[in-house]
Amino acid sequence: MKTYHLHITGKVQGVWYRASAKDKALSLGLRGKVWNEPDGTVGALVQGPDDLVTEFIEWCKEGPMLAEVNDVVVSEQPMTESFAGFEITKK
Q: How far apart are CA 44 and CA 8, in angstroms?
């Protein structure tokens, strides 16, 4: 299973982005975590089947209703940990 890091920019803090991303990931059966960065962006690590991860990434490009996403940069990461669920963390 692959692990992907997402770096999401735009108006993505204070708009329920992390909670909505968690809900979307769980609805897709994905695992990982999402967090706020000090610079106002959001980061995430996600694990799961490629087709479902792709669906999650596409959702991240829109985000919840109040979000204004500028960009989502995706990079594959070495799998250094296996997540049991999907949670909001401090990083």
A: 8
Cα–Cα distance list, 34 to 1, 17, 52, 75 (Å)? 18, 9, 17, 15
Q: Are 70 and 34 in contact (CB under 8 A)?
A: no
Which residues have a catalytic role annotated? 18, 36
pLDDT of 12-46, one tens digit each?
999 999 999 999 999 999 999 999 999 999 999 99
Instruction: Give the whole-angstrom CA distance, residue 62 versus residue 65.
Output: 8
Instruction: State the fold for domain 3-88.
Output: Alpha-Beta Plaits (3.30.70)
Stated pTM of the model: 0.95
